[in-house]
Design goal:
This protein has 140 residues and is an all-alpha fold. The protein has 2 domains: 30 residues; 106 residues, Cytochrome c-like domain (Cytochrome Bc1 Complex, Chain D, domain 2), CATH 1.10.760.10. The protein contains 6 helices and 2 strands; from the N terminus they run H-H-H-H-E-E-H-H. Strands 1-2 form a two-stranded antiparallel ribbon. Helix 2 packs antiparallel against helix 6 and helix 3 packs across helix 6. The chain starts with a helix and ends with a helix.
Length: 140
């Protein structure tokens, strides 16, 4: 694209303004509720979440050393403990830990890491929806 100096300056200003607007909105875009994350994963999957499948994914080993429940507990309503480091892990169920699934980027980071450890690959949107839907059924 061959722009005159005046147009190049205007083009740069527009790009800079868009970048600043995007940066200002990024923290808001990261805030979420468990229900919003579930809705997003369900939409990506193109099918409804199934809590029973989420529980099965969470509690079953998938040919690897650990299952999710190895660290989080079979019913993740209490503090868990990392299987190899012994580090304390807050309850997974949002009703028992209000901070759980409130940051979309953090949720994605941990799904990516843990799914690789548990199933040897990234989890699908349907699997993420299933797990969150099951965790949302756990109430005090």
């Amino acid at each position: 694209m061959n722009l005159s100096p005046l147009h190049r300056s205007s083009f740069r200003s527009v790009i800079a303004a868009l970048g600043l607007a995007g940066a200002a909105l990024a923290p808001v875009a990261q805030a979420a509720t468990p229900a919003e994350l579930l809705s997003g994963y369900t939409a990506q999957a193109g099918s409804p979440a199934v809590p029973a499948r989420g529980q099965q994914l969470f509690t079953t080993r998938h040919g690897r050393e650990w299952s999710c429940s190895s660290c989080h507990g079979a019913v993740p309503t209490q503090t868990g403990k990392h299987a190899s480091t012994g580090k304390s892990i807050g309850a997974m169920a949002p009703a028992f830990n209000p901070k759980r699934f409130t940051d979309a980027a953090k949720t994605e980071k941990w799904f990516r890491r843990n799914c690789n450890d548990i199933v040897g690959r990234e989890c699908t949107a349907a699997e993420k929806a299933d797990v969150i839907s099951w965790l949302l059924t756990l109430k005090p």
